[in-house]
Write a structure and sequence with these properties.
Helices cover 21% and strands 23% of the residues. With 146 residues, it is of the alpha+beta class. Strands 4-3-2-1-5-6 form a six-stranded antiparallel β-sheet, with helices on one face. It is flat. It starts with 10 loop residues before the first strand and ends in a 12-residue tail after the last helix. The N terminus and C terminus are likely disordered.
Amino acid sequence: MSGTNQGTEGILATIINSGSTNTSGYTVVIRNDGSASSVIRGKLDPMVETREFPPGTIDTKTLLCLLTAIGDVSAIPTALCAKPVSFATTTTISYAGKTSGDLQSIPQQASGGDQALLQESKDLYGFVQTMLSQLKINDMRVSSTQ
């Protein structure tokens, strides 16, 4: 990741949102010390907004506990969801060299799968949503020139 002075050993997790027609995509890098960096990409213009959050901003103890309980984030259950092409986004998390599927597509019930993993995945997504909201990053709207 360019723009970060720390090596990958200081990074706990990375959250990426694809953005859509009406929302900006973003990347949030969370470091072990609770600091974070965000890059919000503009859709209508090449503007990029970067922000830094100081150590202790993110509750990394809880995040690490959730990630450790899941282990391999690529095993997070996701379901195929019908999403509008223009307005849909995907949100993934990378941890320990693995990347999840779309966290927004975690099913409500386990269909023959691991109920504990399903609940841990829902808990992780809830934590991510709360964290992004606290950082005022989640669902950043693209400014319109109309």
